[in-house]
Design brief:
Elements (H helix, E strand, L loop, with lengths): L7 H9 L1 H18 L5 E5 L9 H5 L3 E6 L4 H8 L6 E5 L2 H11 L4 E5 L4 H8 L5 H12 L1 H4 L5 E13 L2 H9 L3 E4 L5 H8 L6 E2 L4 E2 L12 E9 L2 E10 L8
Parallel strand pairs: 1-2, 1-4, 2-3, 4-5
Antiparallel strand pairs: 5-7, 5-8, 5-10, 6-9, 9-10
Helix pairs in contact: 6-7
The structure holds S-adenosylmethionine.
């Protein structure tokens, strides 16, 4: 069980910030509706209690198989998202069980719900990872497109995150209208940091964390970047895309 990534601390934070994160989760839902699967089977990884998911989208699936490390997530997810047609829950490591689940559910779409960028945090804070471990993690994340070849899959994940200063009135503005950039291809971290300097009244400072997810999608896969005002003093650049089986032969 990871306490830096999930668990009671995450549930408390997500519950308390629900109003501040509403606009972002609506933007995410719009992206799922425009580009994601609607119906069939869904393998849903790292979803916690589904704080950033809308029940109506989940209800479109005939069956959902959810996997999270967090033992609390199952009950809270069921409470938050009633009326799902079929929901199976596994407590465990989704990356370790990925290949077995793909074999067991050959037609299922796959969604990594803000968990891939958490692996760097877990490695750094809980496993005291070395540079070599982090390089291995980055490499294994960049191998996902191969492992998922032929499948309809998507991910929302952190790319970089770090400390900011911003007057609270301006913070509210971005909370209600999070900044987003559609991009036909991958953007390097340096570009994400440059975009920060375009945000009025935002002052990024200190060290920004690279979540090691820049290779999760093939470079030519279209995607959206969302600037998440996670907390008044700490923001994240999220990256999100859906990969269709017909377009995953790139790279
Ligand atoms: C930042 S939270 C996001 C949770 C959820 N997507 C939401 O919006 O509320 C990350 C979640 O991923 C889970 N997680 C992290 N690494 C995981 C792994 N390897 N396998 C399964 N779940 C994982 C954590 O337990 C946590 O619930």
């Amino acid at each position: 069980m990871s306490s830096i990534s999930g668990g009671s601390r995450w549930h408390w934070r997500a519950w308390r910030n629900a109003a501040n994160w509403r606009a972002l989760s609506k933007a995410v839902d719009g992206f799922h509706r425009d580009f994601g699967p609607q119906g069939g089977e869904l393998l849903l990884f790292g979803c916690s209690a589904g704080w950033m998911l809308q029940t109506a989208w989940l209800q479109s699936f005939s069956s959902i198989i959810a996997v999270d490390l967090d033992p609390l997530a199952k009950h809270l997810f069921r409470l938050r998202h009633p009326g799902l047609k079929q929901l199976a829950w596994h407590q465990g490591n989704a990356l370790d069980t990925l290949d077995a689940l793909l074999i067991a559910h050959p037609q299922a779409a796959i969604y990594f719900d803000n968990m891939l960028g958490q692996q760097a945090l877990i490695e750094l804070h809980e496993l005291k990872a070395s540079d070599k471990d982090l390089a291995l993690l980055e490499k294994s994340l960049s191998q996902l497109p191969q492992r998922l070849r032929g499948r309809f899959w998507g991910s929302l994940h952190d790319r970089v995150s770090g400390p900011v200063r911003m007057p609270s009135s301006e913070f509210k503005r971005y909370v209600h209208q999070p900044l987003s950039h559609r991009s036909p291809r991958a953007q390097p971290n340096a570009q994400l940091v440059r975009w920060l300097s375009e945000v009025e009244a935002l002052q990024a400072h200190g060290e920004w964390l690279d979540h090691l997810t820049s290779g999760v999608f093939h470079a030519d896969n279209p995607r959206v970047y969302l600037l998440w005002p996670f907390a008044p003093q700490y923001w994240h650049w999220l990256e999100m895309a859906w990969v269709k089986p017909s377009t995953d032969t790139l790279g």
